[in-house]
Write a structure and sequence with these properties.
The chain is mainly α. The chain is built from 4 helices and no strands. It is flat and about 40 Å long. It comes from Pararhizobium polonicum.
């Protein structure tokens, strides 16, 4: 169950990272409120997950999910470059996440 909670926390991290773009410097009320709620929920779920998961592993996976998801959505939503080097780096992060999960 802790792994599912951690995965949800990672998805919420993606949500608030992308949400930052839509707040336009925290000048838009609804995106700002939703982004803030996502931040709080993400950290709370991470805190719940680390009750049973190793802290370093959980934190690395949480940030890895957020990083990979944010980069992918940046490519899709904001036309950020999808160069071979960027995609290769994403693959390395995914490999690291998988490795940490397998060794936890």
């Amino acid at each position: 169950m802790a792994w599912i909670i951690l995965f949800l926390a990672g998805l919420l991290e993606i949500g608030w990272a992308i949400g930052l773009k839509y707040t336009e410097g925290f000048t838009k009320l609804v995106p700002t409120v939703l982004t803030g709620a996502s931040i709080v929920a993400s950290v709370v779920l991470l805190g719940i997950a680390v009750r049973t998961l190793p802290l370093g592993t959980a934190y690395a996976i949480w940030t890895g999910i957020g990083t990979v998801g944010t980069v992918i959505l940046g490519i899709i939503l904001f036309a950020e470059p999808a160069t071979a080097v960027r995609l290769g780096c994403i693959a390395l992060i995914i490999a690291g996440i998988a490795g940490l999960k397998l060794t936890a």
